[in-house]
Structures are given as structure tokens and as C-alpha cells.
Amino acid sequence: MNQIMKKSVLALALFGAAGAAQAVVVTNQSYTETGGIRVGQTTAAVPTPAAGVDGQLYGAKATFTHFASPTYQDASGAFHFSGREMVADGAPGPAGPGPDHTKLGVWSFAKVGTQDVWFGEWDGEATSGAVGTKTAGTHTVFYAGENGDVATTLPTAAPVSYTIKSINQYSGTLPTSTLSANFNTKVASSSGDINFTGGTISTVGTDVRLAATSVGVLSASGTGGTLDGKFFGTGASAVAGIVKFADRNKDTAFGGTKN
């Protein structure tokens, strides 16, 4: 197992990565419940996207790069692991030393291009039975990233297209879609796995937001969903977000880069 995975999550959350300028981290998650995932940022002087689990690891959040061990990356580029799996691979368990990783849940997430932008899903993990067995009623999707100077460097040519990938009930593949964003007319649409028309783009402070209703996700058999997302990086070079449905098991996270 990657040695970084065995270090104290608390130490990583406190010190994070150094940088020359203050980062602005934007996030969202479909549910915030007792014992569930918490997506946010480190407490370092230069915050970076981070995540933890309520009541676990001393209440700390660790960077996504901490969790993104090559040990758990598959051919699609996604990272997939569970707390019980990590302990079996050598991470601290109930007997220590260090914070117990047993109850970290089941994670599937991916990075957007080369940016510090991430999207994925989390479920609680059953304490018995097969490793990686999900706990019903806990499915949560999320995204997190540094938005950089996106609000002041939006593309002037229209429209701009993005290739985006979806995560829902991850099983080894990341279905794709093509997102079209017109930053002049503030209108967006998508075809492929995630499909919608009449989406809206708005700038609020340093955020450039993407929203849509009546969204469908083919891989999740979801219809009538609500989409929330953000654009990231110079020239809105990346996008990430989530789609929520009445049935939380169909909730989907997505992320992608400009073509």
C-alpha cells in the first residue's frame, strides 16, 4: 500500500499543500448526514479540496490527493476503495496506531484533467459481510475543486464544448457526455449519458455556476433530475457537478474538461 495512505490524516489536513496565493475551494454534495461524507477544504493557510467522514479520523478532512492512491486506481482512471479494504491493506484499524479507517465507507471518485478538481460518490460500508458492501440509504454524490480565476477569464467565443464523465454506482466504467456552454448567452445543454436542454450559467462572485432541471442520466435510469455544477480554471477549462433525483440511488456526479 502507498505509504502516504498510512500517515495520519489529521496531519495532512492541518498542513496541506503550500502555494503562492489563496485558493478558493467550491464544493457541493447531495446529502449531509450524521456519519456521512463531508466534502470541503483543508485548514491549511492555502486551502485545497478535501474530504472526510463525520465522526471519523478525529473529524479531520484530508486532501483528495491523499486518498488518490495508485493502489486503488483502475483502468478508467477512477479511484475505488472502502475503509475495510484500506485496513486490510495496512491502514490503521481499531487497534491503531493512528486513526481508525474501518468506517470510512465506500468511495468512488475521479480527478478532472490535471486540475485540483474532483467528483465522485460515497456510501456507508456494512460492518460485516463482503468488503465493500454498501449500506442502504447512504448514497451521496459530490464535487470539490479550486475555481481559480474562472470568473474573470470566461471564453468569449461561443459555444464551448466539454467532454464529461459520470459516476453512479461505479462498476468500472465512466459514461461520457458532451456539454455545450455558451458564456455569452448564459445557456447550456448536454447530450449523451447526461442529457438536458435550457441549462443556465451565472456568475456569482468568483463562482461560475451551471444549473439545469429536467435532467436525465441514462446510466442511472434517472429522469427529472436537478443539476448543480461549477466551472473551474482559466478560461473555464473544467466543469464538475452533481445531478439529484427523487431516488438518491440514481444521484450522479460528473466532471470534465474543455475540448
From TrEMBL:
Signal peptide: 1-23
Domain of life: Bacteria
Gene3D superfamilies: 2.40.160.90
Domain HphA N-terminal heme-binding positions: 21-126
SUPFAM superfamilies on file: OMPA-like
Domain HphA C-terminal residue range list: 152-258
Alphabetical list of Pfam families matching this protein: HphA_C, HphA_N
Keywords linked to the UniProt accession: Signal
Record-given protein name: Transferrin-binding protein B C-lobe/N-lobe beta barrel domain-containing protein
Naturally occurring in which organism (per UniProt): Pantoea coffeiphila
Lineage: Bacteria, Pseudomonadati, Pseudomonadota, Gammaproteobacteria, Enterobacterales
